[in-house]
C-alpha cells in the first residue's frame, strides 16, 4: 500500500514515497535550500511553469533511484496554496493516475505539516505506530513558517482543531523582514539566528503582542517589525553595525517568547499529553530550545519535525494521507479541484 | 477621505491607519487598482485590513507576503496582492490570477514597483512613510508615477 506524495503548493516541487509498513522510502525535492526558503525569503521564480519543468526531472530521479517503482495511491496537495502552482501538482497526479490506474486523493498542506512531527515516531516501529501515537494524544501543536503561524490541538479522535493564529505577519516572515531591516543578507531568518547567538538578548527589548492577555491565543508580529524600524531610526549606521548581534538577539527573543508563551497559555487551557513543532521555522535552534524548556517544565514529550519534513515537502503529504485520512478528499469525477484557501482545521 | 489622503494624512497608531483604510473603502470607485508603496513596517497591510472592514469583510487579514495573494469576499471581492517576493512583472503574469478569479474584484497591491507594468489601470497610488515614532503619513496620488 505504497503512497506517492506530490507537493507543489508554492515554491517547491516535491515527490516522496511512503510505505505504511516501512516509512518514508525516499523524497525528491526541486531545491536543496528548502529549509531557508521556508523563512519567507525571495526565491528565484515562483512561476507555476517551474513546477512543470521540475516534475519530469524529479520523476526521472525517483525512477532511477527505485529498483521497483510501485505505488497504490497518489496523494497530492490540493491546498492551501497558489492556485496556479497547485494546479500543476494535481495535473501531474491525474496524469499518473490515468497512466497507471492508481487512485488519487487530495491532502491539505497545513494538516500535513501538523502531522509531520510524527513521521519519525512511525519510522521507528511502524507496527506500533497507532498505539504510540495514541499515547501522545491529545497533542498541542505549533506550526510556524514563512507564511503561517498556527496553534492547533489534535484530539484523542485524531482530529485537529484550530486554536489560534497570527492576526498579521507570520513568525518566519517577521524574522525575515527583521533581517531585511537590519541589513542582513538572504536568507534572513537563519542569519538572524546565527548573529543572535553572539548577541545579548536583554540589551534591546522589543514588544511582545498579546503577552499580557494570556487568554488570547493569537499572535501579532507586525508591531514588532515597526518597533524595530523606530529603534533603527534613532541609531547611527555605525551604532547599528556595532550592536547588530544584540539587535538580532533581542528581536529573535521577542518572536520566540511570543510563540512559546502562547503554547504555554494554550496548555493551561487545553491540557495535552504532548507538544509539537512543525513548519520551516522549526529549524530555528532558539525556538527549539524554548520549546524543549517548556516541555521539560510541563513534563511532556516534545515532537519536532525533522529538517527534511519541515519545509514544503512531499513526505509529509504522503504520510498525512496515511495518518490523517479525515483530512483528505477522494478524487471524484465531479469535484476534484484545487483549494487555494482550504482551511486546515475545524474551528 | 480621498481629499484628506491627497493632502497627506498623519496616523498615530495602527488603529488610526486601519480607520483611514475603512473610510477610503466607502469612497473608492469599484474599478480602481490601489498600489501601496512604502518601506517595511509603515502600515500597508494594516491599511488593507481597514479597507476589508469597510467592505464588510470580517476575516482576519494577514500579510500575503508568503502566499503572494489572498482573496476576500464581502460587499466587494478584495484581492490583496503582495509583490515583495516577486522579481518581475512576468512573475505576476505567471501566477495566472485571471485564470482562477472571475471579475469584478478590487486589486490592492503592496510593493507595486516590482510589478509596475503589470498593474491594471486606472491605478491610485498610496505612499506610506514614517515621520517620527508613532507618526506615519499616507499620501494619495491619483496616478502611478
Structural write-up:
- The complex is a heterodimer of chains A (347) and B (145).
- Chain A has 347 residues and is of the alpha/beta class.
- Helices cover 44% and strands 17% of the residues of chain A.
- Chain A has helices spanning 34-37, 48-65, 83-100, 109-115, 119-124, 129-135, 171-181, 188-196, 222-233, 237-269, 285-298, 307-310, 315-323, and strands spanning 3-7, 14-19, 23-29, 73-79, 104-108, 139-144, 149-154, 160-165, 274-278, 302-304, 328-330.
- In chain A, strand 9, helix 11 and strand 10 form a beta-alpha-beta unit.
- Chain A is globular, with a radius of gyration of 20 Å.
- Chain B has one domain: P-loop containing nucleotide triphosphate hydrolases (Rossmann fold), CATH 3.40.50.300.
- In chain B, 26% of the residues lie in helices and 28% in strands.
- Chain B has helices spanning 2-7, 14-25, 44-54, 89-93, 97-100; strands at 9-11, 33-37, 69-73, 77-82, 106-110, 123-132, 135-141.
- In chain B, helix 2 packs across helix 3.
- Classes of the chains: A alpha/beta (347), B alpha/beta (145).
- Chains A and B meet through helix 7 and helix 9 of A and helix 3, strand 3 and helix 5 of B.
